[in-house]
Amino acid sequence: MTASPRHLLVSERFRTIQGEGRSVGMPAVFLRLGGCNLRCAWCDTKYTWDWSQYDRAKETSKQTIEDVARGVASEGPGRLVVTGGEPMLQQNGLVALAAALEALGAARTWEVETAGTIAPTPAMRRVVAQWNVSPKLSGSGNDPERAVRPDVLRAFAALDHAWFKFVVGDEDEADEAMALAAAHGVRADRVLLMPQATDAEAYRARAPAVVDWALSRGVGFSPRAHVAIWGGRRGV
Q1: Structural domains of the chain, ranges and CATH numbers in brackets
Q2: Do 139 and 38 meet the contact criterion of CB atoms below 8 Å apart?
Q3: CA distance 95 to 123
Q4: Residue in 13, 19, 86 with CA at minimum distance from that of residue 50
């Protein structure tokens, strides 16, 4: 479901630290949007899109751009991480949100978390300071033709502020991630391998192996600090 450009379909907003990727540990306001074009089996935010398990009316709300901007501004200055779901389904609304924040004197450093299936418009590229692109591998359970869009991945790979974060559950997926990156022009120094884990116990069990796989392939490791600290709790 895509909201109109004067509205955003919002799941939740909260202040915390960035738990993943290049800016891990940095304080940030998270704006989680509703809706997704993929269906990952291990997704830990199914409440943003899986209406067979969750009540859409309770989990999301259609909010005006102005209301969202005031809410973000009220959280204080700094980094804004827009996530989902798949926030790029609502990129026209996000461009409008950036303008509304500017008008409030509350401009933010933007990060966007995306699966890399929808290319950013020129206006969206101007808004975002850091792209956290997470292409979905075979273990996600998605149809590869939906999950991997070569033209879109190459467009992100061409941006000097895009980082590619691959969720891996075993070493075969680490190899799959490396092959996918190489096939789409993603530089090795922009690749991060991240453990597939939705609770602290699974994270602790899998993280050491993922570190080893990253080291042996000459790429980076991304923790899931929020999972290690708070487990599967929402809003942190």
Answers
A1: 7-230 (3.20.20.70)
A2: no
A3: 7
A4: 86
What region, left, alpha or beta, does residue 219 occupy, with left being phi > 0 and alpha being psi -120 to 50 degrees? Answer: beta
| Token pair listed for 181 | 């990156």
Contacts of 193 (CB under 8 A, 6+ apart): 166, 168, 174, 177, 210, 213, 214, 217, 219, 220, 221, 222
pLDDT, position 134: 98
DSSP 8-state class, residue 189: G
The closest alpha carbon to 191, from 205, 202, 176, belongs to 176
CB 40 within 8 A of CB 28: no
Task: Report residue 151 as tokens.
Answer: 């033209």
As averages over each run of 10 residues, the pLDDT of the chain (236 residues) reads 77 96 96 98 96 97 98 93 98 97 97 98 97 97 97 97 98 98 98 96 97 98 95 86
- Peptide linkage before 85 cis (omega within 30 of 0): yes
DSSP code, position 87: G
Cβ atoms < 10 Å from Cβ of 206: 18
Q: Give the DSSP letter string of 156-214.
A: HHTSTTEEEEEEESSHHHHHHHHHHHHHTT--GGGEEEEE--SSHHHHHHHHHHHHHHH
- Paired with 109 in beta bridges are 79
What distance in Å separates the CA atoms of residue 122 and residue 120, rounded to the nearest whole number? 6
